[in-house]
UniProtKB/TrEMBL annotation, chains A, B:
Residues 1-45 are annotated as: Disordered. Signal peptide: none annotated. This is LacI family transcriptional regulator. InterPro entries: HTH_LacI, Lambda_DNA-bd_dom_sf, Peripla_BP/Lac1_sug-bd_dom, Peripla_BP_I. Keywords: DNA-binding, Transcription, Transcription regulation. It comes from the Bacteria. The keyword Transcription applies. It comes from Streptomyces phaeochromogenes. Residues 14-23 have a biased composition (Basic and acidic residues). The lineage of its organism: Bacteria, Bacillati, Actinomycetota, Actinomycetes, Kitasatosporales. Residues 28-39 have a biased composition (Low complexity). The keyword Oxidoreductase does not apply. Residues 48-102 form the HTH lacI-type domain. SMART domains: HTH_LACI.
DNA sequence: CTGTTAGCGCATTCAC
DNA sequence: GTGAATGCGCTAACAG
């Protein structure tokens, strides 16, 4: 034990200090803590309302509302009394009541298929940033890659949020149409459905995979495997579409059903070996790294014996790996930001946003190389 | 292109089918789609309310409410008419109004410091499972390891949720006390604050690290480094406390300030080398894997030259890595389940739950071995 | 500038 | 078993 004995355990010694004025309301009057202490947890006492505040401050509820929301000018003296009362009573506005009266919830919802993939938390961060800058909360829900529950979750979200971001939705077209008919702000992220009137922001996976194929071709690869992701994934379909097109350049792509996790990639390694390819492209970086692991465990060298290419470029920041994965990269923060902005515009009825597309770039790193036995 | 040409692109060919009856309400009447189509997105038309349904069905709003909530017996004929009207109109209850009237939001909130660590999504899954089984939504917020914003986010959550789960909160004791005084259901996950009246569910990190130290000792290690996590982390403090105690067994632990991500671990590798230890314990698996990567890149062999031990055991399921990390493991789903149940009990006023502790187990895998030059 | 009056959409007493 | 009336807590006209 050399350093920093244990100071980090309790940032503040017990009872050391009370919250600073700037942190908490309720420091204006000496009786604050006393009245707060009354709020024992046993007695589910009636929450303090705006009326209580008004009474305590000797003003009407409208005035309280005004100073709290800055809706209109209020006599400084009254404002002070209100704020004191708020602090004194520990008043917090009731979100449901505000929502009802204002006609909006003050929150946006985000539905994602899988939080375990660092990809989504990253997107979420920038979504949250713009949402908060607009004074809105963010409500996250995860469908766990389950297309069945997704529609219901989306409905839930729509019921309690002013707008919803559907990330990589797996639900079928009909369900999407159903949601789009609600007249509720919804934007699609990474899913483009022809004929659907929903704004969308998506990544150019087709372009990204085309770059990957080009890279592989120039390296001399001819036979390539693709570890396919979730069946209902639009992103997956786009990647496959790119491989289709690549056939014109002499690239023969074998699609191997796989999945979206490292575990899936790990399990698919045998099939990759057996397929006789010299390179494999994975649905995403997680799958790719899983595959690399299994491939190496089975005695193959990457990239000498087998090139492995990922997608999403999550490895750099989020994943620990001695393998610097060659991958298709995108600005996840930009994706999140544009999605949130599009939704914001929609909610402001400044809609009619045309489909936005985030480009991909090829990142050549250490898992791609010419094939051991060049084609021709 | 060998298989599965592109069928997965659109699960349903455009216009192929409408939602099945079991999936969606609104199929009862032939005019459903027609009326739904009226809901153009441009005209922010008034949402259909329970009154509209009542009118359409020729009953009072109370009756509508009754059939919708199953609150009381209703004439089957009327019930049918109500349900038809609901379907026809595409009625969805307004969450805010329900919340206001019922006096509860129908949701619980979960605050986590970092969604990018697979640890939290895992916990979230089981929290969601029990919440949903209780008919409650789950609202997730991320503080991004920022102790400053955490208190505010928690307040936000409390305002719109019936109960809140504070996971690994970084805020200081005073802020925690402030929240605990609100008389609002809150349970602490992975943070124990003496004298605080909040129920808690936490992992026995102390015990876990003690096992790790024992393992290392028996292997023959005497000089060990600890890559320390966030300063405000209780879990981090607990780990350090265990190292303190381990000193009695002749283990000399050097604490190296580090962080909570793989990148942090990667960056700290030099310091580990320089410290002259034969083994290093990381704040978590992410950090450990980052360290392994850097260590190996610098020419050291793991575990021959340096043992590396993690914490949380996320590598197995979530992380791709050719390194099977020796680590301290816990049942994350159990942690989430117990936390959610404790909160549920609190909300039902069946509170007074005593602190729950989730045990840790040692998982000896491939990154720990006897030191190259055994002590003595 | 401020107080009074109406709802927001729904659940829930009450009478019938 | 059903409808009418009341109120949840708050905001937004509306008068003053």
């Amino acid at each position: 034990m050399t350093e920093n004995p244990r100071t980090s355990a309790e940032p503040d010694p017990p009872g050391d200090r009370m919250p600073k004025k700037s942190e908490l309301p309720g420091t204006a009057s000496a009786s604050v803590m006393a009245s707060a202490s009354v709020a024992k947890k046993g007695a589910r006492q009636r929450r303090v309302t705006i009326t209580d505040v008004g009474t305590a401050a000797g003003v009407s509820t409208s005035t309280v509302s005004r100073v709290l929301n800055g809706t209109a000018r209020v006599d400084p003296e009254l404002a002070r009394r209100v704020q004191d009362a708020v602090a004194e009573l520990g008043y917090r506005p009731n979100a449901a009541a505000q929502g009802l009266a204002r006609g909006e919830a003050g929150a946006i919802g985000v539905l994602v298929p899988d939080l375990s993939n660092p990809y989504f938390p990253d997107v979420l961060k920038s979504v949250s940033a713009v949402a908060r800058s607009n004074g809105r909360r963010v409500m996250v829900m995860e469908s766990d890659e389950d297309a069945t529950s997704e529609h219901e979750l989306a409905e839930d979200l729509m019921r309690c949020c002013d707008g919803v971001l559907l990330c990589s939705p797996r639900m079928n077209r009909a369900e999407l149409v159903d949601l789009s008919l609600r007249g509720h702000p919804v934007v699609l992220v990474n899913r483009i459905v022809p004929g659907l009137s929903l704004p969308s922001v998506s990544v150019d996976f087709y372009g990204g995979m085309t770059l990957v194929c080009g890279h592989l071709t120039q390296l001399g690869h001819r036979r390539v495997a693709y570890l396919s992701g979730p069946e209902a994934s639009w992103a997956n379909a786009e990647r496959i579409r790119a491989f289709d097109a690549a056939a014109a350049f002499g690239v023969d792509v074998t699609v191997i059903p796989c999945g979206h996790t490292a575990r899936h990639g790990y399990a698919a390694a045998d099939a990759v070996r057996d397929s006789g390819v010299t390179a494999v492209v994975a649905y995403n970086d997680l799958v790719a790294l899983g595959a690399v692991t299994a491939l190496e465990e089975s005695g193959l060298r990457v990239p000498e014996d087998m090139s492995v290419i990922g997608c999403d470029d999550i490895s750099l920041d989020d994943l620990p790996s001695s393998r610097r994965l060659t991958t298709a990269s995108l600005a996840r923060d930009e994706l999140g930001r544009q999605a949130a902005q599009t939704l914001e515009a929609l909610m402001a009825a400044n809609g009619d946003t045309e489909p936005r597309v985030i480009p991909m770039e090829l990142r050549v790193r250490h898992t791609s190389a010419p094939p051991a036995v060049p084609a021709h």
